[in-house]
Specification:
- By secondary structure, this protein is of the alpha+beta class.
- It has 3 helices and 4 strands; from the N terminus they run H-E-E-E-E-H-H.
- The N and C termini lie far apart (about 45 Å).
């Protein structure tokens, strides 16, 4: 018997409205825009110990398709920092998420982005060593990209 994963669902207007209301409730400082089949959330992450203030954009289309970008400061994409060539962030390893669990912008993507920023700030000061969780394939990708020392 094959089980269909929830994150393979098509975009749903109702899901986007629920996501929007949850972000409004938990992160009232987020600027939200619902445009057709995409919910966009913009927010800042700052800490007195960080070198930078980060401007972030989350684009949520559906359970299976969402992207998070650091708009400022500009960061050069690299496998080493879990950033894809299109500058979107790698926040989690998809097989680690149960196919029966919904992802939420408010509960998952925003907190994971804040955690990514914390790891990035550590990476900047600790000799370029990523302290966050990594997928089983990460070391292989680092070696293939010539980034493993």
């Amino acid at each position: 018997m094959k089980l269909r994963a929830i994150y393979d669902e098509e975009p749903s207007r109702l899901n986007l409205l629920v996501q929007q209301e949850l972000v409004k409730h938990f992160f009232p400082a987020c600027r939200l825009r619902l445009d057709g089949t995409v919910l966009t959330a913009n927010f800042e992450v700052r800490d007195e110990d960080y070198k930078n203030e980060y401007k972030v954009e989350v684009k949520f289309y559906s359970q299976g398709y969402h992207k998070v970008f650091i708009l400022h400061p500009k960061i050069k994409p690299s496998i080493a920092i879990h950033m894809y060539p299109d500058t979107s962030l790698c926040l989690y390893y998809p097989p680690d998420i149960s196919p029966f669990r919904r992802l939420f912008v408010s509960r998952d993507l925003i907190p994971l982005t804040a955690l990514w920023i914390c790891h990035y700030e550590q990476w900047l000061i600790n000799g370029k060593k990523w302290k966050g969780a990594e997928s089983p394939m990460h070391q292989f990708l680092m070696i293939r990209a010539g980034l493993d020392k």
